[in-house]
Sequence to fold (439 residues):
Amino acid sequence: MIAIQTIGLEYVYADGTEALSGVNFEARAGEKVAVLGPNGSGKTTLFYHVNGLIMPAKGEVRVFGENIKKTDIDEIRRRIGLVFQESDNQLFAPSVFEDIAFGPRNLRLSPDEVKERVSYVLHRFDIEAIGKKNPANLSAGQKKRVAIAGVVAMEPDVLVLDEPTSGMDAGGINDTLGILEELNNEGKTIIISTHDSDLAASWADRIYILNKGKVFRSGVPKHIFSDEKLISEAGLRQPVIVQTYREFRARGISKGEVPLSVLDFMESMESVKVLNIRCAIAGCNLKTGDKVSLEIKDGMLVADKGSDGVTGIAMFNGNKGEDIAVKDVVGNLQHHEGKITVIRVPAVIEGGSRVADMEKVYGFLDKNKKQKIGAMGTSAKALINKMELKCDFEFDVIQSAMLAALRGLDVMVFASGGMADRVVEKVKVRKINCQGFNI
Fold:
């Protein structure tokens, strides 16, 4: 089903500025769509149309198949939640609690229902501690979280977020994207605008590029970012991982399709196979600066000079300053792949009808080796905090867990419901050892 659709959408501002020109756009139910473009490309104007803040001068906007001009505007704004780029334009109540309560009250919910919804999102977004604070006194990241929480409290089908990560530090960006991932996993359609190519490439199912009020191109991220000329003409920057891949490919190190993740990038690398090679050093007595000849004898790399005293070898490629010191080079070089254990946690850890069996969790942890821990979703993070465990991955958890496993580490990923299923599904695609555990 198509959640949002615009057909030939045009809009001209009062000063004559053409903001949108013949824009055809659609977002399917359950999709993550990124609208990418430089400042002034029309992203914000498009978003104001899909929420009904601006009515089309020409063309159509359809919400779940219904023409927005023929649909009750309150119903549109209930189903389509809009988060402004500037949170200060959205937050106006004297407290965070009252700000979040504003939307549900406009839906004419009972006081008890309003309180229940506000309490739920305060807990879910981990902002209970600031519930009584004035939004004006919050940090930029906190304001953005409150603004998103206020929209989520209205339980929309679609969330439209204008530059949701602008002005945030790395921690705030990771938290925000984690929340959006969780909401999308529950079936919400998520549409964001951004000028960040790295974010769009790694996050979106589909991308629209806007430039000067027109759709420059649309498609899946891999097709969009494979076209170097397209990105340049659109006035955008290639994602860092794509730039790196192109450099490696030019040197004959990488091959295949353009990667958009570290895992894909690793698969593009020409593999080097090492089978049971052991480095051995013949006894010798060397002074600093002495040169050592290396040769392979009977499957062994041997340095042969002098009698004894060697603990390391300096290997030179002939260029000054490019030597590589190799120390303690005794042992077998063998590949070992780690295991990923997905621990399915209840949707609510505290304050709800379902709670985690802590004794069962501790028992499982005691019996199973873990070298890295990841958490996907609010309830999983709450459980990790409650258990006072060190969480190594809170963002991009699936990829981080698989990379760790490929390095030979055993990883435990805490996730709830559908998010746990998503982890298992993606890990099995990569043919990495994976098991599940319910608590």
